[in-house]
Amino acid sequence: MMVGSTALRAAFARRLSTMYGTEVPAYNTLVDVAQEVNGEVMERMGADAERLGSIGRVTAERHGAIRVGTPAELAQVARIFGSMGMYPVGYYDLREAAGSSVPVVSTAFRPVDEAELAANPFRVFTSMLVTGDRRFFDEDLERRLGEFLGARRLFPPRLLDLADRAEAEGGLDDAAAEEFLTLATRAFELSAEPVSRGWYAELERVSAVAADIGGVSSTHINHLTPRVLDIDALYARMSERGITMIDAIQGPPRWDGPDLLLRQTSFRALAEPRLFREEDGSVVRDDLRVRFGEVEARGIAVTPAGRALYDDLSAELDAMLHGRSVTAEERNELAAKLWEGRVPRSEAELVTGDLAYFTFHVRDARPGAVPPADLTTLLSEGWVSARPIVYEDFLPRSAAGIFQSNLTSDGTKDATRTGADFGPDALAAVLGRPLHDPYELYASVRAASLARVRAELGLDGE
Ligand code: OOG
Ligand code: NI
Question: Per the confidence metrics, is the pTM higher than 0.80?
Fold first, then answer.
């Protein structure tokens, strides 16, 4: 039997989850609590709980994060994920994100069409070190990093062959699928190989992320994040279970209006035992804190106008909080107040203000004989209903916060030097495939639903 790309993706997500739960047991607690909370939300809200995805989708839903060192490694990652129907979407420059000094650019590999997202939305936030960025690496360190990274092999050739075959043929037979999944999962396990102390420490002085990526000879999954329907409830419950979360939930505030974009929170990196090779050649046990647990709640995807509003409000909140020290609760309260004055409180207003993405559907009962031609009237007269489109992507600021909150040290960034140019086009060239624009993807889902509405109501050809 042929195992198609969708089944490969779902199976890969499950295997990573099992593997990560073995490596980081607190992840299992997080998944249990998320599922407990999701069950309660389903009971409380019924069908409304599934407006942003079926409970089947949400229960299986995860995102992972990985980090690689070179363009060649990133191109290989693109082949492996491509075979599972995951394509690069969005460009994130974490060298520029507020308050961050992380020398990487990133994209997210994920399914791009509606049916594939509904079947299994597994996505992986993938970052690549920009070793040519002089704010972080001088020429000598860039050269030595290049040598180190050029000599390592993250993915066995057999894994890449199977990935290419799966992508070309739309899947693999059972035996090949099993081999592919085993090799793919293994490639993201934490390696038991000793870490060279001196090299790791040298990179760590520049950036803990640089050390995590370029200080070791393999890659690993950095975190795996389940989706929860009520992140505030989850936050409280994790704290009750004695797991210390970072002090806030990142992203939009909890407020009395529609859930937008993405809210995330995490618990601190765990100290994990690792072997270190000392300068004198001896190998000792020590530990490293690089991996952590994260959970997220997904809301409605916003349009460029909605995003501009969100970014404005975030900047205003920053200005308000500048120089003040407030608790997470106080911060949320201020943010929620700000939102209440400026963000529509209903989905209907988000539609008419073109602030968020929706799909449109003809209702069973028609309110009259002749449908009006424009969407606003179709909605207000009850011909058509609107369903929100879930946000499938990430927020650079939260991502930077997630990186930052889990670093052992701030590292050093020399802001007086100019950074390396590495924009979306450069990233697409490295990936060897198109870099999708998230807005275009949401807009095309909306457009397809509008075309269906027009056809069903006979509004075309007038
Ligand atoms: C990725 C951080 C970004 C998120 O959820 O925003 C991320 C990393 O730590 O490698 O996963
Ligand atoms: Ni994450």
Answer: yes
